[in-house]
Amino acid sequence: MKNRRRKSNSPKKSKRKEGSEPFKKKDRAKNTVSQDYSVSEKIRINKFIAHAGLCSRREADRLIEEGKVTVNGKVISELGMKVSQKDEIVVDGQTLSLEPFVYLLLNKSKNTITTTDDEKGRNTVMDEVETATGYRVYPVGRLDRNTTGLLILTNDGDLAHRLMHPSYKVKKTYEVTTDRTLTDNELSAFMKGVELEDGVAKGHNVKRFADVKNTFLISVFEGRNRLIRRMVEFHEAEVTKLKRTEYAGLNLKEVGNGRWRYLKQDEINNLRKLVKLDALDFKKG
Fold first, then answer.
1. Residues taking part in catalysis
2. Is residue 2's pLDDT more than 50?
């Protein structure tokens, strides 16, 4: 998860529409879970970095090896080093802290960039939720600029990494509209697998919309770049509209375009169970 903030010479106005109002501390606490570490408790440095929401533990090890991590002002190289919240941990110039875990579901709108900042000043997913929590959250994976739909944002680095890792085969479902009607044989070919330049891509539960022209649903269990668009291009057709409607068992019910909501406690632990992480104890939140 990329960890950069938008840089601007002038403050940007907050978009305080429904689903993105600032929250009072008592409301915020209901939707976060505390990381159960005492101030002096020692944990491995890569775990600290991951639980600060910056990246996965494996990526944290890489940052350490590259000399981008300092503890109390000194560059470290020991991967197994243990630290506590009393220590000052800085990664690539940014000081980290163990904030409570936060989990959001966003219905991404069109022409929105899936990143935490954009040098060209274009609208990002962070603009959609910038006043949401008061904590740093990051998008789990990416959706193309013109792809809309379900996107998870969190500062739980372990969960984010596993949801994006191909070995966990997280299910994603898309509503696809094309510039022409694909034949039954072409739709069936998706379920058999189509050959792309980076290997065979296979769709599941492919279903045509009877009442929406040139539109079908398709599920995949991988996250290669522009996968659905390239699968359609295999049939010499073009995607004109693409929306992710489901992700890892979550859907967009009651979440309007450009709006967001907190994940419920059972949804969070269902995600963690899906990728073989321990459940969280929300009584400590």
1. 144
2. no
